[in-house]
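JOB MANIFEST
job_type = single_chain_structure
chain_count = 1
residues = 330
[input]
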Amino acid sequence: MDPRGRPGCRRGAGLREDQLVTDTSAHNRRTRRGRPASLRRAAEGVVRACIALTGWAAIAVLIAIAVFLAANALRALREVGLAAMLTGDSWFPTSDPPRFGFLPSEAGSLWVTAVALALTVPLGVGAAVYISEFAGRRIKDVAKSVIEFMAAVPSVVLGLIGLKLLVPQVKALFGIETGLTALSAGIMVGIMCLPTIISIAEDALHAVPADLRQGSLALGNTRWQTAYKVVVPSASSGILAAVMLGLGRAIGETMVVLMLAGNSGEIAASPLVSARTLTGTMAGEMGEVVFGGLHYSVLFAMGLVLFGATFAVNLAADVVLERQRKRWRR
């Protein structure tokens, strides 16, 4: 072995290492020259500011809507009073003196919403449990596509379907004078709310950790027993949030109730009579009132009440969902 070779090899390796370090340093210098640290910090600051601006813009829009409704409802709040409107049982806006009681519309909204939830909650939660726990992959994909399509159907189309198919059946089944009732409107509104409840409830069931399912099956429970003893109770807060969001959708629906509820000004004592909802009243009369008049302002006050109710329902649903997320992060 040539003793001169080893030092030569070490010198060669040392030169290559020195060259590699030199090249890396030069690359870093070029990188720093191409994008200085101050520029990177400035770009990051701009992105953060844009993201924060979009978040605050959504809040600002929500506040602006509330302020707009309150400003237009100010005359009604001063001359009629919020308590008198909420508890008044007569809606005669053209009489002398006019009466602006919200109770007929409130009762109609409650009946339509109650019928919709009575139909939607068992069907929606049951469908979500089947899709999440029992359906195969292909059936699950098809079911989700169908649910997304249902959510995209315009409400006026559902109103026409209800007018043609459901209203005559309700009239014949219960032997009443007309099928334009709170029951007919509630059934179609319930069909509209199904995609919302199924999607959110299925997401909540899917978020349950697989360890809980595996532990239940290891203890000898069947898949059905695991579903109703472990999975559904664990996702109960998310399912409740889905129901509350469906409730908010049912309260705020307009076109279907305007076409199917009958729009009677009487306080509905049952779902088998014609009724008028808050949304139906506003949509039906806003085009006929004097701009800036008292009736015009009362309709905005009605919108303010509806806005507050839907905001409270959706806020409660968001709080419940956030609690569930924190629960599963532990």
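[summary]
Confidence is low (pLDDT under 50) at residues 1-15.
Residues 37-72 form the longest helix (36 residues).
exit_status = 0
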